[in-house]
Every structure is written in structure tokens, then in C-alpha cells.
Amino acid sequence: MTTVLIVATAAPKQPAVLVEALERFRSKGATVTLACFFDSEELGIDPALAEIRTFAIPGEKRDARFRKALGRAPANRKIWLHARRSTWLRQQYRRADLLVALDARAVHTVWEMAQRNTRAGAYYGLVPAQKALAADRSESVGKRLERQVAAAAGIGARGARSAAEQTIRTTFQKATGQRVMSNPAGAWLWTRAVAAPRVPDRLRSKLAVRLHDSAVRAGRPAAGTRAASAAVHRINSLATRADMLTKAAKTELTLGHQPSGLHDAIRAQLALADDLLPRDTKKAAAAVSMAWSLSSNRVLHFDRLTSPMSTDPGAFVAPFRESTAARKLSQPRGRLTPAAPAPTDRPLRLLVTTLINDNFLSEILERYRAMPNVEVRFLDLYEDEVTRPLALSGSTVMEHLLAGDSSYGAKVEEWLRPHLDWADTIFVDWCQATAALFTLHDPGSTRIIVRLHSFEAFNFWPHLVDFSRVDDVVFVSDHLRDLSTAVLPQLTDTGGPRLWVIDNAMDLQRYPRSKPADARFNLGMVGFSSVAKDPRWTIEVLRKLRERDERYRLTLIGSNFNDRTSKPAKDYGKLLKQDLAELEPLGAVRRYGQTDDVPAALQEVGVIVSSSVRESFHCGLVEGAASGAVPVVRDWPFFAGKPHGARTLFPADWVVESPAEAAERIFAATATEEQWRETGQAAAEHALKTWDWSVTQSGFDRLLLDD
């Protein structure tokens, strides 16, 4: 008697055809079993024709490995993964004479069954299976074996290649996985293998990236670096080399590390750009853009407590100065005529422009709009939906600069030329896309002023600005000027722009308010949403205070911590959440939330803390001081020990080095209510006479109105 096993993953569109086939199988003395991976009730088949079993697709929820395997598997293989878990079904296909796939999704499952029961014939479809059953009676043993092998090969042709590839891929992944690369012997062996001669560049690159990733994830980045370096020396293609090193660097950045091969990847992209520059400026621009993308990745500078630019910012960007393509982006193109002096027969036409962020412009716009001798216009490059895309593509700007001319450049000229023709002076806030676009073409006799905030110093945009067309560059602090000139040496070149240090425009008169007595024990932070603000440093100060006096508490003013930007931010956020989960129930920490009335929030704060690892100025700290809170400023580590920083910006007694020193300053300043109010009053007087808009506006008058 012949045993037939039919596997079906969906009900046939014509059930009558299946019924007819089952009747023919029975008439020839065959016993038929139908394995359904759907609800077999849909078929309505007489149980006398076949034994019918239904298998549920969801599988066993409890088995994590099985769920993981299902998640990785293609649709047709999922059926087999379910099928092989059934003891009953294993018994059926091992004793079957004919294995039949009723539909395409069942083909792979039947092929797998045929590999485990080599004497059975395997077929796709009912008609081939019926023909095989009829021919089976007259076949010789040898012919039957040949037919069975051919049938198995035929049905396997649809799935064998993908299955073989999957097997090879799985074997390769295991052989080069974390377990192997965590073993010194395994890492040594693969490092030798990846450097073997006569390996195609593409394969060598792929293998090197896999080995590097496995080693890094296994906690052995040095082994990953050795494997990547071994491969690099054997790769001839500049593009392949750059791609391999970039992928390796991106893996480490994704994991929150500073890549050991970061500069190798940057230099490889720049070498590719230099090679492509004479013949393909588009691809050259893409390579330079990738180099800048690596060097300005937020994991390096914003989402950790350190930055590779801290020690020597000039050295960090040195590879770009060595590249022909990168240097061409910022080479001076000059202007035909110098900026004209301010007009004497009509009001000065002042254009104030930015991209999205106008947070630091309110007082400036209000003052000069009120002056009869100044006509002010404001332009946000983001407002116009039609032209907005022109301001959001750094790689397109790079392509234009490398080519020297482009349709993109013509569109920018058409967009901004009317503004350049109208204005006598253009004040560009933020040295980013706005500054690059306004210097993309000769500004004529219009004076160009650019204000650079700290964010841009870590970004690529200032390197696309033609500073030979900029008359003045403004910084909000001396230490920011020092950082910027180290990163942008063209700022200090002969014939370069004038450099100004002018404090942020802040109306501090609205901050002084009477504070309740219990504010004396309340620390405050204005802004804690990023790693650079390092709120956990302030929490450490709070812990030291509460060890001696549990009346001390902390108010966090502003939006919650943003842990969605990268893995380091997520890791930091997790620790911060643990701190808050411990301290908030005790009333030791309170989140005030985002508010438009910061003076009211600061009325409850007796000690204002700046715990940042770096700041260009820190308006929130100054606002707190103006409110009468005792200022405590961490000696911002990024600038500590340098000619300028927190210690040169603020009074010496405001600045501390450690949480312990901060706690001692707070204990001393808040020892009595009288002492606390006197210290806070002194801080408020210093803030108002130094940084209030009534004082700092004279700097802007000299900048904008004086020739």
C-alpha cells in the first residue's frame, strides 16, 4: 500500500479538484494524510478520503529561540519550522511514499521532508503526484531511485539555492561571530585570513566588516581594529576601502563608542573624494559629505560627557585641511567690491536672518525696529515651503562648491539676490546653512555679519562658508572664539573677518523677584534635556547636601531628558531615571516642566547650578543669578585649564571643580537665611550690571551702527 502525505498552507480555490484527487488516490489503494496549516474545516472533506490534521501557525509563545527563528525566516520557511516541531508529522513524512506540496508555500517544507526521507518521491501539485503513483507499479528499483532523485531535485530547485545560501550564511555568521572573535586564537586566525593574498576586494571588505563588528560587540574593539587594518592594506580600491572603514566606524558609533579607526575612515573618504574630484564632482561631494558626517556625529560631541575635540580641536579636523576636495569647499573666492559704509541720507537697511532658530533675536529685533534710522526685515529660510529644501541639503552645497557652478547655485542666487540687493547689512544668526548660502555668491557691497554659537563649531556648515565674503564674525564668549579659530583657521587669515565677542542679548530686569525663605534649600537647573547638561552631576551635589541636611532639594526646569538620539543618550537617560525614581518619591527632586514664565519658576530657586560639560555662555545660569539665586558653576570640563572658560567668564567664587566643592560652596552660602540672601543679591547685581540688555546692547550698536 502506498502512503501519501499532502502538505497545504492555504485552502485551495477549487476544493472539488482536491476531492477528486483524493478519490483517485483511494481508488488506487493509497492511504492519504492531509497536513493543513490553516483551518481544515474550510475544506468540508469526507474523513473517509483522508486523515486530516490542522496545525496552528502561531507556534509556542513560550519558546524564545523559536520566536527568534521565526522572525528571521522567510515566509515559506516558517511553515517548515512549525512542521518539524510536530512529532506526529515527523512520523508521517518519514514513512510516506509520496510527498506532495499542494501550493507554492508548501514546496520548501516538502523539500525539507524529502531530504529526510530520500526513498519518497517529492512533487509539487496533485497531477504530478497522481502520474507518479500510476508509474510507480511498473518501475524497476533502479528506475524508481532515479525518478525519486530527479523528483526531489525538481521540487528542490525552487528552494534549494536559497536554502544552501542560508546555510552558508548561517555558517559564516557563526564562524565569524562574537564568540569566535572574543577568543584570542579565533581573532588571530581570522585576522590572518582577512589579510590573505588574492582575496577579491569586495569579499575581503565584507569579511573585515563582519569581523570588526563581531569583535566590537564582543567587547574587544582592539581585535576588530586589527582585523580592519589587516584588510585595508590589501584592498586596492579606494571606494571599497572607504566603504569598509566607514561601515566599521558607523558600527562603533551606533554602539556609542568613539571609533578607534575614525580618522582612518575620514581620511579614506577624503582620499576617495580627491581621486574623484577631477572627473566626478557629484561623487566627490558625496565622499566629502560622508567624511563630515562621521566627524560631526552627535555620539562624538553631544551625547557623551567628552568630545574628541576637547583636547585639540585643530588636530581633530586636520584631515580636512590635508584634502584637496575639502579645502576647495572653504577656499576664499572674495568679492568684487568691499562692503559699503552705512548710508547717511536714509535709514540703514538691516536684514536679520536665521534658519528655524530665532531664540536669541527677540531683544535685537525689538531694539532696531524701534530706531527711526534703521529699517529692519526678518527672514527665516525655513518659512517658505518652496525654497526651504534649498537650505536643508549640505551635500548639494558641497557639490556646487566643488563644481563651481550648478543649477542649484542658480536657484539660490535667484532666491537670495533680492535680499542682498535690498540690505546694507545682513546679520546672520547661527553659522550654518544660512551663512553658507549667503556667501555662495558675491554679496556685492552688502555687509555680512555672522554670529557663531557653540553648536556649529562641531558641525560641517562653517566649513562651507566663504569667510572672505564675511565682514564680521560674532561670538558670545572668549572660549567659543578660541574653539572656533582652532577649528576654522581661515577666521584669522590675513584679510579675514573682524572677530567680535558680544554677550547674548538678555532682558534680565524681569528676573529679580522676592524669594520665599524655604527657597534657600532649593537647587535649580534651567535646562536638563541633553547629556551635555549632565544633570546627574547636580544630583550628586544634591546627595552630598542631603547627607548632612535633608531639607535640600532640586527643581528641574525645562523639557524632560531626551534619550532618543543615540545609545549613549539612552544609557545616560536610564541612569538618570534611576536617580529620579529614587529621589522624587522622597520629595528631593521635582520636575517643574517646560514653561514660558521662567522668572516665576526661578522665584522658588535659591541656588542655580550649571553642571554642563561645556557651554558657550549658559543663559539659564545667568538668568538664575539675576533672580537672586546663588550661582554654582562647574568648571566646564571641555574648557577647564584653557586660557578661557567658566573661570574667566564668571566671578571666581562662582566656579567649582567637583560635586564635593559645589556642596561646600552651597553649605557656606546658605548657612543662614541672611547669608544666602546677601550672596544671592551680590550675584544678581553682578549679573544685571554685566549681562543685562541695557548694558550689552552697546556692543550691538557698535557692531551694527558704527562704521
Superfamily (CATH H level) name of the largest domain: Glycogen Phosphorylase B
> For the terminal residues, how far apart are their CA atoms?
108 Å
**How many domains, in number, for the residues?**
4
Number-wise, the strands total 17
Computed CA radius of gyration, to the nearest angstrom: 36 Å
What is the correct CATH architecture of the largest domain? 3-Layer(aba) Sandwich
Largest sheet: number of strands, sense, barrel closure? 6 strands, parallel
Report on this structure.
- The protein is 49% helix and 12% strand.
- It folds into 4 domains: 3-167, 3-Layer(aba) Sandwich (Rossmann fold); 174-330; 348-501, Rossmann fold (3-Layer(aba) Sandwich); 517-691, Rossmann fold, CATH 3.40.50.
- α23 links the parallel β8 and β9.
- With 707 residues, the protein is α/β, with parallel strands linked by helices.
- The longest helix is centred in the last third of the chain and has 19 residues, at 673-691.
- The strands form 3 sheets. It has a 6-stranded parallel sheet with strand order 7-6-8-9-10-11, with helices on both faces. Strands 14-13-12-15-16-17 form a 6-stranded parallel sheet, sandwiched between helices. The protein has a 5-stranded parallel sheet with strand order 3-2-1-4-5, with helices on both faces.
- It contains 33 helices and 17 strands.
